Amino acid sequence: MNEIIEITQTPSWPFGEASRGKLVAEMMQQSGFRDVTIDGIGNVIGVRPGRNRKLPALIVAAHLDTVFPQGTDVTVKRAGTRLMAPGIGDDSRGLATLLVLARAMDKAGIQTERDILFVGNVGEEGPGDLRGVRHLFENDARAKTATGFISIDSSGSGGIVTRGVGSNRYHIVFSGPGGHSYDKFGIVNPMVPLAKTVVGLYGIAVPSEPKVTYSASIAGGGTSVNTIPPQVFVDVDMRSTSPEEVARVDRELRAIAQHAVDEENAARSTERGKVSVDFQVIGMRPAGQTDETKGLAAIAVGAAEEFGYQSRFIAVSTDANVAMSLGIPAITIGSGGRGGAEHSPDEWIDVEIDESVRGLKVDLATVVSAANVTN
Amino acid sequence: MNEIIEITQTPSWPFGEASRGKLVAEMMQQSGFRDVTIDGIGNVIGVRPGRNRKLPALIVAAHLDTVFPQGTDVTVKRAGTRLMAPGIGDDSRGLATLLVLARAMDKAGIQTERDILFVGNVGEEGPGDLRGVRHLFENDARAKTATGFISIDSSGSGGIVTRGVGSNRYHIVFSGPGGHSYDKFGIVNPMVPLAKTVVGLYGIAVPSEPKVTYSASIAGGGTSVNTIPPQVFVDVDMRSTSPEEVARVDRELRAIAQHAVDEENAARSTERGKVSVDFQVIGMRPAGQTDETKGLAAIAVGAAEEFGYQSRFIAVSTDANVAMSLGIPAITIGSGGRGGAEHSPDEWIDVEIDESVRGLKVDLATVVSAANVTN
Question: Alpha helix locations (H) across chain A?
Fold first, then answer.
């Protein structure tokens, strides 16, 4: 618990995870991890060697970043067994769980078949765009050949993320010549293809299974009410557990936008210039799925139920997306104990001992079983 | 010229015209105007009595406000006969012209048939929305019955504003329940009726004569890329010299927006709330025209040509709009002399004596003739 508090009170924001990373690296060293390193992007990696070091390793990760910006008051407040602070559950408790699991295995004299790579990774939340785990799988030889990936994220037990919701997020910029609204009336206006693109997006039919969603979320641009805008934008989010569906909506949207631009250049004067469109990537989270009938998912279900939790499969976007998209079995599970209000300043966890230990046992059983599978 | 400099160096911004108003009132008093008053909205009014004080008066106005915000450096720089400073031509020179005209008439012993109301008015530029002259015609008995209205605005001679371009400007806000882009997919999104409104606006056919224009100029709203926005807006400008045409486009746009809102509430889930639209007025400038074949316009043409200027009729938006819309003959003319770069920090005027005096003679002839018409 002291570790949770110390981690939480070391601020860590998107692209500002270095201090917390250093702290977690020190804690890993003190907890007896081997080969503790901080990689090029800021991920902290510690190894717990298995019996057969030639087997592909299991990765167990928790994320260093929070959604809260630099300067947020991260002082932990306590009321009974309840601790409150931004990021305390998402994902300070997860990071502390990495340490607790390793020490518990040492104490119980458990040696697994495979190496376990414990990772405190950067960039899970929004703007981070999963860059920490992405970097890991692109650059770390041990990750490239890993047998599986388990991320421990937020409180609770029983929920098992087996479907990674992928998303393509764009800042779509429409540009044109711009000009005085009265004098230059009749020239192309980038607001028109923007509007047609939004109307077209909301005309795209999507199935309910696999779930596919889209949203025109933010609009902006223009200089004054009496100026034809030189530039306007709309930010769009599209998501699905199916990579094919995200790709299809993406393709259709681009075609709609290009068609709208072409129509505008044909409908109004281009004597001062044409309108054009540019899709700028805000985020690209790959979609993926893990087999729910065997392997990691089955192990996690068994562990949860062994300790009396009802298990359920969940579809969201977590660090596990990256592994799933690469075909590596991956799940995300809770760090145990109760908690809530993640992403809000009122975020809390309950460290009541029985419930917390029961949750840790689920994670321990899951990790140890997964690291012992050798077939 | 010293008056132009002193007026210019007394900052006056939209809704911050009081200091310059006080200065102009003092200058009017020193120049021998009668009954100098500052009305409830900040207009400075001085009278030059005519022979028959029962005749409706002629109004001659120049505006106190500039487009430049509080804090702008308004120090006048000089290079030869060229003076440079923000607002020096638009409309410090016009204000000084009011004083020069009255003194010239005194010096030449000219008494007009009608009273002339000289007015330094507030609120001509953008956000002022013509509120000074509007207030004058709504509250001042002498204005309500005036025979005509001449505003002196910016440098130059020969250009005569006879058509007042009217405009309706709206901040159109579309609201809805908002929600998470993935979890709440399927609920109404206010971005859709906004987009349909823009597409609909650009489908409205307009004649080239009378000229009618519209512009979707600024867009905004939304909270994050993965949130269905609770509120978005688009700022729209519509203009014409024909009040009927502005009113028609306005009516059609409101119908389009309401239809788009109804469609959205029918097309997607309203379980968390409906979308709605609110037209917030940014500006309302009435359109109007003055007969170009007789009266004030003919007088101004004659005066310009008498002193060798080629006259031309102009359609823009000035303080004269208000009088025109009330059926009172109104024109806007230049204060004479060369000048340029209005609304820019590089604004300049040339006070070269021959050209400046020739321009003042045009204005003097116009004002005196207009104040002598008794039929």
Answer: 2-8, 18-30, 93-107, 131-139, 141-144, 191-201, 243-267, 295-306, 320-325, 353-372
